[in-house]
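User: Please fill in residues for this 384-position structure.
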């Protein structure tokens, strides 16, 4: 079995009572009205669910025994005991209503095992459902260039990129190549052709998969994560050579994304900055914030649009990246905005609470000023 292989659940859980119990618990949780994204399983510990407000303990089921865990892992990887000794096990389970991403790994110096089960929709969300600004879809008609998504793990970067690919699939006759670790959403062909590659199964690395993709006549390329110089270098090449590239980074702001892209090339900063200025369409930095009653999560974004000569000139000069933040605050292009402006808007719309906004900002002092009616702060732009 490969690093990531979807399992049809129907006949997979019929081997023994321990296995059947794991099946029953997962099915009960998935069928329940509880709004959770992840299940955390540890030996002889209560199950935990990741809710919009954070992790919560589940008391309806007894903790999993060693037999429960062993039977479950055997069902998704018969050689799990050997495989988990040197790396985490990553598998997918396809259900009728959703897809489960299972990641199992050792803890406590190898003395115990933990399992994270992430629940995902079978199909990508629409752009409207993500909460992304709708003007971003105009970028998806571009024949080439770079769109960067940034933010910490678990804030929906892959979901946002999948929604963009789904929009292209519905509107363009294109060849779309994705390089992912693992494949999160399986896209069905509509107007576009999909070639989805998984790192360590279909290609040894993001960089190699990207280099191979350039020889396979793609129109659009999605890179699940830029992790190193080699991948960043190939992303630059792909965007410069006539492809529309969507890629993600683990940074917390638009400014941080630009600095990260240049940090891999300290000896080539001027050249790479010019390339970034020429190819970049936009940076979307995002986070998910609990809504007012904690029943769901709301998308907050920071967007830097590179659509004017003024912005391109600032991107060419890394020492002026602070001025880019001022540009986003100004809202002069009616699209760019900071994370704090997005959070402030959501508070004013009563979509989120001030407390949760302050928990998710990267500049608490500025946001406090924006939320304080008597404080000074930049105006909040309106965008749609």
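Assistant: Residues filled in for all 384 positions:
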């Amino acid at each position: 079995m490969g690093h990531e292989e979807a399992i049809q659940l129907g006949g997979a859980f019929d081997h023994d009572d321990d296995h059947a119990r794991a099946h029953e618990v997962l099915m009960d949780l998935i069928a329940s009205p509880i709004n959770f994204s992840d299940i955390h399983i540890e030996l002889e510990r209560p199950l935990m669910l990741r809710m919009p407000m954070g992790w919560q303990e589940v008391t309806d089921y007894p903790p999993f025994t060693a037999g429960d865990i062993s039977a479950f892992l055997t069902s998704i990887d018969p050689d799990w005991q050997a495989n988990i000794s040197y790396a985490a096990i990553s598998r997918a389970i396809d259900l009728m209503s959703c897809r489960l991403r299972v990641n199992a790994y050792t803890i406590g110096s190898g003395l115990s095992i933990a399992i994270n089960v992430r629940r995902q929709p079978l199909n990508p969300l629409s752009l409207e459902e993500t909460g992304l600004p709708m003007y971003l879809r105009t970028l998806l008609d571009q024949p080439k260039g770079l769109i960067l998504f940034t933010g910490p793990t678990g804030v929906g970067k892959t979901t946002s990129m999948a929604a963009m690919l789904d929009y292209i699939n519905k509107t363009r006759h294109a060849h779309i190549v994705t390089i992912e670790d693992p494949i999160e959403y399986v896209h069905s062909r509509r107007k576009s052709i999909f070639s989805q590659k998984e790192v360590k199964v279909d290609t040894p690395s993001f960089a190699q998969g990207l280099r191979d993709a350039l020889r396979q006549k793609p129109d659009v390329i999605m890179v699940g994560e830029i992790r190193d110089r080699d991948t960043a270098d190939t992303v630059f090449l792909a965007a410069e050579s006539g492809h529309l590239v969507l890629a993600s980074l683990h940074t917390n702001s638009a400014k941080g994304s630009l600095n990260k892209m240049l940090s891999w090339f300290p000896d080539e900063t001027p050249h790479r900055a010019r390339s970034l200025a020429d190819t970049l369409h936009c940076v979307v930095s995002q986070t998910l914030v609990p809504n007012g009653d904690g029943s769901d999560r709301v998308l907050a974004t920071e967007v830097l649009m590179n659509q004017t000569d003024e912005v391109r000139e600032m991107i060419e000069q890394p020492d002026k990246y602070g001025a880019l933040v001022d540009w986003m605050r100004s809202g002069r292009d009616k699209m760019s905005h900071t994370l704090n402006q997005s959070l402030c808007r959501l508070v004013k719309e009563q979509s989120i609470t001030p407390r949760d906004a302050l928990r998710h900002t990267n500049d608490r002092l500025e946001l406090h000023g924006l939320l304080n009616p008597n404080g000074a702060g930049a105006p909040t732009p309106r965008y749609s």
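For context: The longest strand covers residues 280-290.
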